[in-house]
Amino acid sequence: MWKLPHTNNYCRFIDFGIMIKDAHLLSALYFYFPTLDTESIKNVDESFMQYNCDDRAIRLLDLGGVISQPDILQAVFNEDYEIRSLPHSKYCDVSSVTKEEKFSIYNIDVNTDLYIKNRYGGIIFKLLLTDSKSNSYYRFRLEGDIVANLYKIERPANALLQSAFWNVEIIDFRVNEIRNLNRSLIETMKGQLNIVKYKFFYMCPSNEEILSLSHGDYKRCRYLENDIWAKYINISDNDIKLNKAITAYQWNLEGDTHVNMMIKSKYENNNIMTIFIYLLIVSIMSILFSIFGNFLYASFFLSSILRIL
User: Fold this and answer.
1) What pTM did the predictor assign?
2) Which of 8, 48, 62, 295 is the most buried (most CB within 10 A)?
3) Domain extents for the chain?
4) Residues 6+ apart with CB under 8 A from 240
């Protein structure tokens, strides 16, 4: 999950990576995302890979071609991997430096491999699996208003003062929560993937403070190299400020059929408008206190003169 500094606010999107063993036994994968807005769905091709953060359209973008670049591949998996393109194939084989084959990356063609349905109070993405290999890896990005449903801003009790400088944010991210799904959708499901391991990453500005976590402390955190990750993010410099340090937090979860990950964080909100309003309020309060003080002094002085007389 990404949260990056934007000109006016923050740019948010989610990258999913799925490693499937025995993928050749499957014909398709279905992904369901509940959403409140299903009118702005767009099925896009590579011409949309560089997008504007202000565009709220819901999209699913392929990242297989992006991580097939050797430097980005090593940055994403944090391993010394090598990659080999296969002729006349959408797959690229990934191996270790000792030439041991690890897995194959599939480059999704959104025009032929991906189908979208707007049903059951959300969006269903159907990904066709053609000529799948035993260990296949699929990576894609979800963007738009659907991501905004995962977080909310919590206003502090002293919002007038504290919110001028800080915001508290709660992120609620759930995977395979059957009890929250539409009943008609559950009836059509033929089965679920048996996910044996989850790796959850949260990328945010380094000045954001993690307050609490639903699954305990993070396993590790590190700064991202801006030059490499800028190519992976693939957003124009006009839309996003990559000159700020970005921190990546990682959690590993095993043995759960479903995950409900909640993150509570605090981040700076020092924009020009909030600071101006804060200074204006302080100035008005100072003037009122000054007027009230002068009034008390004048009243005290007048009462002293009347006593003398």
Assistant:
1) 0.77
2) 62
3) 2-270, 274-309
4) 4, 5, 6, 11, 53, 233
